[in-house]
């Protein structure tokens, strides 16, 4: 409503309150893991392997794998996993430990974006 009314300050205040309640940046951390390949089966396999290899950790959640919002870009199939963590969790260490558990073939590109600006 505030955005439609052109009230920037009210919009920012409401957005920050929602982000704080959901522990989203800047009150929490996010990381997007995006897999892509021309071989859809290879992307599915790596996504499933990553889902099986998630380490146990407190104060973080992993969502996915799911099709990325743009599931097909330039002939490449895309899957995404999203990690939401509390602000004081060492997200990079978690990601390193997790990704070290899975062998990613050369045909699959894996990209990690910490605190992404866009989810496309």
Automatic annotation (TrEMBL):
Q: Record's Pfam families?
A: PriA_C
Recorded GO molecular functions are:
3'-5' DNA helicase activity; ATP binding; DNA binding
Query: Which keywords does this chain's UniProt record carry?
Result: ATP-binding, DNA-binding, Nucleotide-binding
Upper classification of the source organism reads:
Bacteria, Pseudomonadati, Pseudomonadota, Alphaproteobacteria, Caulobacterales
The record's Gene Ontology biological-process terms are: DNA recombination; DNA replication initiation; double-strand break repair
Protein name, per record: Primosomal protein N
Q: Which organism is it from?
A: Brevundimonas mediterranea
Q: In which domain of life is the source organism classified? A: Bacteria
Sorted alphabetically, which InterPro entries does this protein's record hold?
A: PriA_C
User: Which residue range or ranges hold the Primosomal protein N C-terminal domain?
Assistant: 26-116
